[in-house]
C-alpha cells in the first residue's frame, strides 16, 4: 500500500474541520492543529451552571449547503442534526415603538407592512424576488466556484452578471427603490450586520440575505449551533482525521517555493505534503509567515465590525423575549458611521438578543433563561482612542433600558446570576482574529471574488486557505463552501503537480 498524501490543517474552526473531512474522504491523511482546547472557533459554546450559550453564530442559514457538505462526506445531515425552523424569524423593535415580526407567513407580512406603508407589501414581494435572483446567480456564478485568474472573474460572461447582481450599487440605496419608510429600509438591510457590514457600503447583491432567511428559512439545531460542530468533528474523525488541541502554531517554515513545516509554541514541528490555514488569513500572513509586504497590504484592507457580547445566566424566565430579537437604534446611518469609520460604539446602539430556551429547553435550567446579547461595535484601531470599559458599560445600560421599557423585563438586572463579556480584544486573543474583527475581512466590491485573498498562497504552492477571510467569505454556510472550493483546488493542483513525482511523507512531529 503506497503512503497516503498528508495534510496539516491550522485551526479547527468550521472551515478547518470541513476541509479536513473532505481531504480525508479524498484519500489524505489529515491532522488538525488547534490552538484552543476545543474545536469550533467562533462557533463554540460556553456551558455554565446549566446554561448553554452559543458564543458566535445563532442563525443556521442555507440548509442546502450544509446538506451538501454532509452528503459529500457520505452522510445524511438529518442523521446528525435535529433542525427546527424558527418562524417568525425575528422580532424587530424600533425605537419609536413599532414592532415587526419578519415571517414567511405572507398574509401576516402583508398586514404588518401595509400598516406602515401602503405600497410596502408589493415592494416586499419585489425585493424578495430580487434577493432570490441574487442568491441563485451568486452561488452558481461567483460564490460557489474558484477563480484561478482575473480573466475568469472579469470574463465577458461574468461582467453583465455583476450588473445584474447590482454589485456596484449600495444595498441601502437600492432598498429605497422598494420602500420609502426609513424603518422598513432599516428592517430589510440590518441583516448586513450579520456579515459585519454596513448597508451603506455593502453591495446591493446582499438582498440575497433577506431572501434566504424568509424563503429558505432560519433554522436551529436542537442542542445549539455547537451541535453542528460536534456532528462535523464526529464525521471527520470517522474518516480518520486526527485532531490535536491546545496546539498553537507559532511559525510556518518555508523555502523559496513551499511550506516545509509548522512549529508549535512548545517547539514541536510537523511536516506534511500540503498545509491548509484555517486561522484568520490576515493573521497567518502577519504572524506566522515571513512575508512582511503581503502582511502590510492585508492590514490596510477593510475589515468587518466587532461585537460586545453579554452572556447572561438568568434565574427567571422571560417568555416575552422571542428566540431572535433585534432592537434598532434611531440614528441608523450615524450608527454605521460610528462603527465603521470611527471604530467605536454608536451614540444609540442597536443590538440583538438570542433566547434559545424558547425553542430548546436544554439551553437553560427549568424556569430560567440563557440570554446572549450582541452589540455591534468598531474593530480594534490603534489610531483611535477606545475606552472599552466605558463602551461596555454604556452598551449594557442601553440593553437593560430597552428590555425593561419595551419588553417589560424590568427586574432583569436582579435576576442575572452571572455575566460573561466578550469584546474585540477577546475575539483577537481567543481566536487570533486580526483587529478583533468578528467576521474577518470585509466584503466590499474590491474584496470579493478573485479580488479577495485567494485560497492558495501565490508563492508557496502547497499552502492553502479555508475560512471566513478567504474566498468566498464569512458566515457558516459560506465557510462550508470555502472548504469545498479549497479542497477542489487542492485535489486539482496537487494531482497535477505530483502526477509523476509524488513522494508523500507521513505527518509526524519531526523534532518532538
Ligand atoms: C458574534 C458572531 C455572530 C455570528 N453569527 C453568525 C450567524 O448567526 N450565522 C452564521 O452563519 N455565521 C455567523 N457568524 C460568522 C461565523 O461564525 C464565521 O464566519 C465562521 O465561524 C468562521 O469560521 P472559520 O473556520 O473561518 O474561522 P474560526 O471560527 O475563526 O476558526 C479558526 C480556528 O483557528 C484557530 N487558530 C487561530 N490561530 C491559530 C494558531 N496559531 N494555531 C492553531 N490554531 C489557531 C482558532 O482558535 C479557531 O479555532 C458569526 C460570527 C460571530 C463572531
DSSP strand count: 19
Distance between the termini: 27 Å
What is the typical, i.e. mean, pLDDT?
94
The side-by-side strand order for the widest beta sheet comes to 7-6-15-16-17-14-18
Specify the biggest β-sheet.
7 strands, mixed
The gyration radius over C-alpha positions equals: 23 Å
| Small molecules bound | flavin-adenine dinucleotide
Which word captures the global form? globular
Q: Could you characterize the architecture of this molecule?
A:
This protein has helices spanning 14-25, 63-72, 106-116, 120-143, 150-153, 159-164, 171-175, 182-187, 207-216, 226-238, 281-288, 292-299, 332-340, 388-407, 412-415, 424-431, 476-497; strands spanning 6-10, 29-33, 45-48, 51-54, 83-86, 90-93, 99-102, 218-221, 242-244, 249-254, 259-264, 269-271, 274-277, 306-314, 324-327, 351-354, 369-377, 416-422, 463-465. It is an alpha/beta fold and 512 residues long. The strands form five sheets. Strands 7-6-15-16-17-14-18 form a seven-stranded mixed beta sheet. A hairpin with a 2-residue loop joins β3 (45-48) and β4 (51-54). The longest helix is centred in the N-terminal third of the chain and has 24 residues, at 120-143. The chain is globular, with a radius of gyration of 23 Å. Mean pLDDT is 94; it is low at 500-512. The site of flavin-adenine dinucleotide has 37 residues, from α1 and α17.
